[in-house]
Write a structure and sequence with these properties.
The complex is a heterodimer of chains A (291) and B (239).
Chain A (H helix, E strand, L loop, with lengths): L1 H31 L6 H19 L3 H24 L7 H22 L4 E2 L8 E4 L2 E4 H23 L1 H11 L11 H26 L2 E2 L3 H16 L4 H21 L5 H15 L14
Antiparallel strand pairs in A: 1-4, 2-3
Helix pairs in contact in A: 1-5, 1-6, 1-7, 1-8, 1-9, 2-3, 2-4, 2-7, 2-8, 3-7, 5-6, 5-7, 6-7, 8-9, 9-10
Chain B lengths: L5 E12 L2 E12 L3 E6 L5 H8 L6 E6 L2 E2 L5 H7 L1 E4 L11 H7 L7 H14 L1 H5 L10 H14 L4 E5 L7 H16 L3 E6 L2 H7 L2 E6 L2 E7 H6 L1 H7 L3
Helix pairs in contact in B: 3-6, 4-6
The chains are: A mainly alpha (291), B alpha/beta (239).
The structure holds adenosine-5'-triphosphate and magnesium ion (MG).
Chain lengths: 291, 239
């Protein structure tokens, strides 16, 4: 029982990180029907921003988080403006290749500046509590609470604000939205800013939970988050959150009962099976767009 | 008509999609308070003209509104200047509620009280929409969607409405209803550029009209004149 509770806590921690990253994939897909394959690397950049801010500015946790999110958001907007926007009318494959190229650029640029893995200094006094025989660390609580809060804020923005309404409208039919007086490019930039900002936050939290960071850390985590988004139904914000938690849970459970080398294999197999039965993901809609 | 009265003026408009020329050197104008009908068969270039005015496709030639050149103006700003379009096929956001569809069109507006007044007006004009406020746009019938599309254009508080085949796909009763409403909106002060294949109804309510064939204006005149024109009679009014 204790063991299970402990694992649930671990699953929530990992799942919330996947969910935060998955949101970036799904938001960009929702608005541009494009997979931003550089997103995993933006997550990695988030971890490095956090490292730089923590080491050189020595700011406390919250300002570090804000700066990290802001920095990654700016980078995301810049990438969209410079690399993706000129290709909006081009064939889909051009945008995909460009995104992969941007990802490689980010990895190698980081590698050039930081050839060796780095350690993020602890930003929080690491307290642990024992409840019964379940160990809870303050970091774990903060990661889960922060991720869930960010997701609730995002959900509010998408469902309840005017900008969120515009995002949903764009995901339905981008060509009609300018006729409503809505500046589509600004909304697309805002979407990138929010999506990549969340990815940056995830990078920071991942870096705090597993403190050794390197330029390639975004690849595997990025794939997993992407798969989470697909499992939840790509383009659907709540789906991405659900997908992230599902993948986190599956991974932790597999690692708990099988040798840990089986983890990714079993996890991905289960997800593939799920997609056979629900090809559009859990909350995805079968025929996207238009009536 | 003096130049001063021209609210919207299109001159020497050309639109091409790749190497297909859809509109060739079209010029016309619309004065404040008018209903002007643009009549033409499928593929004549009617929608392309409206899309150019709204600034959502590239074109050559010039379009000005209230004396301002629209070519350098972004599409969203054209709405703020006072031109709203009800696009072909209605363009309802099926994943947004009726209320949200209407609200989205108020994007550029700050005047809270007037927005509330306009909501009331739209719901008075289209009681069906009031009943369906919280339903998703995609769940509405075709007629209801058309009402929502017109209501949305009204919510943007534009002085000029570009209507692209508002009667398309509606039953005869609803067609009459929608034309009655267009005339009513016009009486209340809106200028209207009406694109239609239903020449009969539109020339009835329009002060003036233009006939478009394969991207060129081939005839123009008052609604009465055009209805009496043998060529129009034969091609558009069923002999
Ligand atoms: N996106 C596009 N790409 C290529 N060609 C297009 C495009 N849109 C329109 N055309 C072509 O331009 C010409 C004019 O089209 P347009 O939609 O303006 O006509 P229309 O008068 O509105 O016709 P309808 O009554 O069928 O709506 C047609 O030959 C059409 O095939
Ligand atoms: Mg048309």
């Amino acid at each position: 029982m204790t063991y299970i509770l402990q694992q649930i806590l671990n699953a929530l921690q990992l799942g919330s990180i996947y969910a935060l990253i998955a949101l970036g994939y799904t938001m960009v897909y929702g608005i541009l029907t494009m997979i931003n394959f550089a997103h995993g690397d933006l997550f990695m950049v988030g971890a490095f921003f956090c490292f730089l801010i923590a080491v050189y500015l020595q700011l406390p946790f919250l300002p570090t988080l804000m700066l990290t999110m802001f920095g990654v958001a700016c980078l995301g907007v810049l990438i969209e403006r410079m690399a993706y926007k000129p290709l909006r009318a081009a064939p889909r494959v051009s945008a995909i290749i460009t995104a992969l190229g941007v990802g490689l650029f980010l990895e190698n640029f980081t590698l050039a500046l930081s050839p060796y893995p780095k350690n993020i200094p602890p930003l929080l006094a690491d307290k642990t509590w024992m409840i019964g025989s379940v160990t809870i660390s303050s970091l774990q609580i903060i990661i889960i609470a922060l991720s869930v809060s960010l997701m609730l804020i995002l959900d509010f923005i998408v469902q309840r604000t005017k900008a969120g309404m515009a995002m949903r409208a764009i995901s339905w039919d981008k060509t009609i939205v300018p006729l409503m007086g809505v500046p589509v490019n600004k909304i697309i930039s805002l979407t990138f800013a929010i999506g990549t900002g969340l990815g940056g936050a995830a990078g920071m939290m991942y870096g705090l939970a597993y403190p050794v960071i390197d330029p390639y850390m975004g690849i595997m985590v990025g794939w997993k988050a992407f798969i989470s988004a697909v499992v939840g139904g790509i383009g659907n914000v709540r789906g991405a959150m659900i997908g992230g938690f599902i993948l986190g849970t599956v991974e932790i459970l597999v690692a708990a009962f099988f040798p840990s080398t089986y983890r990714d294999f079993v996890a991905f197999t289960l997800l593939l099976i799920l997609l056979i039965f629900r090809p559009y993901g859990i909350l995805g809609r079968p025929s996207p767009q238009k009536v | 008509m003096s130049a001063k009265e021209k609210l919207l003026s299109v001159s020497n408009l050309n639109v091409a999609y790749g190497n297909i020329n859809a509109v060739h050197g079209v010029s016309f104008d619309v004065a404040a308070g008018e209903i002007v009908a643009l009549i033409g068969a499928n593929g004549a270039g009617k929608s392309s003209i409206l899309r150019s005015i709204s600034g959502i496709i590239p074109y050559s030639g010039s379009i000005s509104y209230k004396g301002k050149d629209l070519k350098q103006t972004a599409a969203d700003f054209i709405v703020a200047l006072g031109i709203a379009q009800v696009p072909e096929g209605r363009g309802i956001f099926g994943n947004l509620t009726v209320m949200e569809n209407l609200k989205l069109a108020t994007w550029h507006r700050q005047d809270k009280e007037n927005i509330a007044r306009d909501f009331d007006r739209v719901f008075t004009l289209f009681p069906r929409l009031a009943e369906r406020k919280h339903q998703l746009g995609g769940m509405l019938s075709g007629g209801e969607q058309q009402m929502l599309a017109v209501g949305r254009a009204l919510m943007s508080d534009a002085d000029t409405l570009l209507l692209d085949e508002p009667s398309m796909g509606l039953s005869p009763v609803l067609v009459r209803e929608i034309f009655r409403i267009i005339a009513e909106i016009n009486k209340a002060g809106k200028t209207i550029l009406l694109v239609e294949q239903n020449a009969n109804m539109s020339l009835h309510i329009a002060q003036r009209g233009y006939v478009l064939e394969t991207g060129r204006i081939v005839l123009s005149g008052t609604g009465q004149e055009l209805m009496g024109n043998p060529r129009v009679k034969e091609a558009y009014l069923g002999g």
